[in-house]
Structure formats: C-alpha cells, structure tokens
Amino acid sequence: MRLQHLDAVAPVSLEPPDSVGGAALYLGNTLPSQNISWIEIPVWFIADLHIHSHYSIATSKAMEPESLHRWAQLKGITVVGTGDCTHPGWLKELQEKLQPAESGLFQLKADLATLVDATVPNRCRAPVRFLLSAEVSSIYKKNGRTRKVHNLIFLPDMDAARRLQAALARIGNIQSDGRPILGLDAKELLKIAKETTDEAVLVPAHAWTPHFSVLGAKSGFDSLEECFEELTPLVPAIETGLSSDPPMNWRLSSLDGLQLISNSDAHSPVKLMREANLFDTDLSYAAIMRAISEPNSPEFLGTLEFYPEEGKYHYDGHRPCSVRFSPKDTRRNNGRCPKCNRKVTVGVMHRVEKLADHPSGRRSPGARPYKSIIPLIEIIGEVEEVGTSSKRVNKAYLDLLSKLGNEYHVLVEAELESIRRSGSDLLGEAISRVRSGQVDIQPGYDGEFGTIRLIDSQERDQISGQLGLF
C-alpha cells in the first residue's frame, strides 16, 4: 500500500527555544485532497500519557521511573503518564522515587535524576514530569453481550490514587496485573473515578481495537452512549489507538464533540512517543486536563500519530493462516478465512466504515492537526538492514541523538543535510520520505503489526550514488 498522507506538521529547521521541551512546528489544517495551508504554532511540550509499568503482564522490567525519565529525554517528551497507578506495588515505588513538582505533576527525586541524567546526551537533557495515570480492563455483560472495554484514568495526586485503589480492591484483584481486570461496568468505573475526585478524567483507551475497546468489533459498543448512558457527557475524549488516526475518526459525527488524543501504550521504554500529544498549556495537571476536556481548546495543539496502517489491527484478517483482508475482501468472503473457513478478525478500518456517517475526507469541526511519524529506531533499522533491537541500531540511534538532539527534533525539525552528515545519505532520504508521507506499508491485521518499507534494495545504491555526487 503506497501512502501519500498529508503530514500535518511540515518539515522545518528551527532551533528549540529555551522553554521546557519547546519547539516550533508548522501544523496544517487541511486534508490530503485539499490545498495545503500552513499555520505556525508554538509547541511548548509533548505528553505521552498512556504507558505501563513493569508490574503489567508482558511488559519490560525497564519500565521503571528512572528509565522513563531517561527515555522521555531521549524522545523529547516533557510529561509522561505513570501508568498502572491502581497497582499498590507501583504506587509505592512511585512514592519512593518521585517528588512533587508543579501542581498535580511529579519529578524524579534529585539524587536519582543526577545519576540518570549522566547517561543522557547533553543535547537531549531536559526536565521530565510524571502525571498519575492508569488503565483498567472491564469485562462484563451488558445488553445481552460480553463487553471488554479498556479505559484510561488520570488523577491529580497520590491521595486520589490511593482512594481509587481502595475502591477497586473491593471489586476485584488489583495486584495480579498493573492493568487490573475487573468485572465492572465501564459506566460504574466512570462513576467510581468521579466519586474518588472531581478532578479525575476517564478516557476510553485505544477506542477501536477489536477485542478490548469501547467501539471495538469483537466486544465493544456502537456508540459511547450505549456504553456510558447518561454519564456520557463526563467522557471528554477518546484515545484513537495505533490502528486509527484522526481522519478516520472524523468520519463519525458522534465523535465531533470529543478531543482525539494519542499515546504510545508503551510496554518498553523504546516505544515511548510512537504516539503522543502536543500541548501549549501551563505545566500542571489541571491545565493539561482542561486542554483534553475542552474540544475546541487552543491549548491542545494536536497529535503525533503512528501510521495507522502499521497498527496491528488496521486491516481484517486471520493471522494463523496469514490472511490479510481489506474490508472489501472480507465482505467478498462473507467474513470467513478462505483457508480454514473461520471468522476473520474485523479490524479498525472496517469497523470505522461500518459506524461512519460521513465519507472519507470529511474534516470534523474543531479538528486538531496531526503528524504521522515512524519511530526513529525503526527507520535506522531499515537503513542498516538489521533488527531494531541490535547493538548496531542502538549505537547509531544514540550517536545521532548526541549530535543532533532528541528523537522528536530529528524526526520533525532537523535539517536533512544535518541528518545526512550525522548519519548517512540513506538515513536522510528515509526521514525525508517519512516527512512527506512516501511510505510503503503492508497493513497490520489480527494482532500482526504492519511492515514498513521506505527504501527498497534497488534504490539503495542509486540513492547513495546520487546523493554522493552532491
């Protein structure tokens, strides 16, 4: 699949200002089929608010405060969610290692920060703040069907987290997994969160994922109102998830009044900022939540997005049989795998098409700009033709950051010529293609991530030779 997305942040070459995590971007307000029109907006900081701790199942042991503090700087993130604050062990660790910073935010204690900062390249060093967050998995029956819905909860202080822990512990086991699995109606979870503190904010997580989301094909609902009923006005936003992007969500007028936020859902530090949010607010819990809660807020500037085709549930399919289907293919085959005749997993694109009341290309009123990115370590891995976990890629990644600055700066702001000098001609060309949306992706399906190709084997020598002439 050849993509020609409009990336709603144009490549620029601006030095980051002295403010916390600050940068400047050109954020577009048009769709691919429209004429490009750019406006300049200052971006004060980046926030990634959905992650998991080492207490969550299938999560790296490195998901601890020190490592998060380090990787947030490498990525260019100013505010990172703690994740898993409903887990007693993780909250205890947070209390031991963090200290209060600005109102409702926390920072790594000074002695720990000094040790960690010594491992961060000078060009990447910047303040990092933590915001209390958690994800709760609700599995319950409603309207004759089993529902499996994941929700994010944001909290303003440790006392609120302890009160929420106590309330949820009366319902089920909150210690076996950082993301507790409870037989609790999502509506009741929202009620409990608000009873814990008026400042709590609940946002449906990865809202389109087939198996565990509010709008998912397997176990979700056809609308937020069906899930949250009369409490729906208390839900200010949804998290779009890796397999969808803002234009897909703009096709539903029922989502027009909601803020569309994006986060990494990281299970290892390197996955931070594969999606994130751009804010121009005071650095405080209340200001960040206000920007999320007000759909037309000028303080919420937009999002950094995974290419949705790379998400592991973008297309339909049946992974055991290696069958990948577009929605059209699925309908043609009556929803069945042609190899084994089992039902295929209906992906996000198909589900959006089913619930949408507008065609592709429609822009929601008050829609925020977005920028589609590919993690830098994946780009380097393709250029070097080795796996992203290899020592070679890790060394190249840190060398590049040492020379140019954090990953966000490299992906979005740095001059291509600087990238070529600091990395290679091929790396400069690859990042140029990501910025312009010239990306080949075989879409992800049924739990299998999509595969990206930026430069094919026939182009490698040609690009190196051509660029070498200049």
Short descriptors:
470 residues; alpha/beta; six-stranded mixed β-sheet; four-stranded mixed β-sheet
Description of the structure:
The strands form 7 sheets. The protein has a 6-stranded mixed sheet with strand order 9-6-5-16-17-20. Strands 12-10-11-13 form a 4-stranded mixed sheet. A 3-stranded antiparallel sheet has the order 1-21-22. It has 470 residues and is of the alpha/beta class. The chain is globular and about 60 Å long. The chain has helices at 65-75, 88-97, 110-117, 158-169, 186-196, 224-228, 246-249, 285-293, 327-332, 348-355, 376-384, 391-404, 407-413, 416-422, 425-436, 457-468, and strands spanning 2-4, 9-10, 23-28, 38-43, 45-48, 79-81, 98-100, 106-108, 129-131, 133-142, 145-154, 181-182, 201-204, 237-239, 259-261, 276-279, 300-306, 316-318, 323-325, 370-373, 438-442, 451-453. Helix 1 (65-75) crosses helix 3 (110-117), helix 11 packs across helix 12 and helix 14 runs antiparallel to helix 15. The two termini are 31 Å apart. Strand 18 (316-318) and strand 19 form a beta hairpin. It contains 16 helices and 22 strands.
Short summary:
The protein has 470 residues and is of the alpha/beta class.
Helix content: 25-40%
Low-confidence blocks of residues: 1-42
Q: Kindly name the structural category.
A: alpha/beta
Q: Please tell me what the overall shape is.
A: globular
How are strands sequenced across the largest beta sheet? Answer: 9-6-5-16-17-20
| Oligomeric state, counting identical vs distinct chains | single chain
Per DSSP, the total helix count is 16
Report how far the terminal alpha carbons are from each other. Answer: 31 Å
Topology, number of strands: 22
